[in-house]
Amino acid sequence: MSKKYLYLIIAALVIIVLCLFTYKTSKKVVFNGNKESITHDFGILSKNKTSLYEYTFKYINKRYDTLKVYGLRDGCDCTESNVKTGLYFKNDTISIKTKYDPNKYNDNGLIAKQIFLITNKNISKFDTILPLTLKGNIQ
């Protein structure tokens, strides 16, 4: 191997290491006025009492002048979520409405279901995807 290729490989490795050191993960997200509530715990759920449990996450865009929301992905068929897609300006609130049906797959015991908000900017440590979690204990 010639010195030229060796120098190119070393330069590429140095650039990669510098990029890793300077990569800034996003700041904490503000949800429902609380920095940590990207999880909602329904507590004890009864299959017989109601068939659907609903919750609305509210994300406040505190970081960006504009934030584009592309949509949501539900982790499974037992959750149904919706959000208004489009541009949200600074201090706008994004409402993510979720519904969980414990009877869909006959769930029992502790559950954790995820919904993923997809945007064009870094809003979590997962880059442009923000995982939201619904939890509960089905009896």
Write up this protein:
With 139 residues, the chain is mainly beta. Helix content is 14%, strand content 44%. The protein has one helix at residues 3-22, and strands spanning 39-45, 53-60, 66-74, 79-82, 86-89, 93-100, 109-119, 129-138. The chain has a five-stranded mixed beta sheet with strand order 1-8-7-3-5, with no helix packed on it. Strands 2-6-4 form a three-stranded antiparallel beta sheet, with no helix packed on it.
Descriptors for this entry?
1 helix, 5-stranded mixed β-sheet, 14% helix, 139 residues, 3-stranded antiparallel β-sheet, mainly beta
* Rounded mean pLDDT score: 82
- The total of helices stands at 1
Strand order of the largest sheet: 1-8-7-3-5
**Total beta-strand segments:** 8
Q: What is the SS-derived class?
A: mainly beta
The residue fraction in helices comes out at 10-25%
Major β-sheet, in short?
A: 5 strands, mixed
Summarize the structure.
This protein has 139 residues and is mainly beta. It is 14% helix and 44% strand.
Secondary structure layout:
Blueprint: H1 3-22, E1 39-45, E2 53-60, E3 66-74, E4 79-82, E5 86-89, E6 93-100, E7 109-119, E8 129-138
Parallel strand pairs: 1-8
Antiparallel strand pairs: 2-6, 3-5, 3-7, 4-6, 7-8
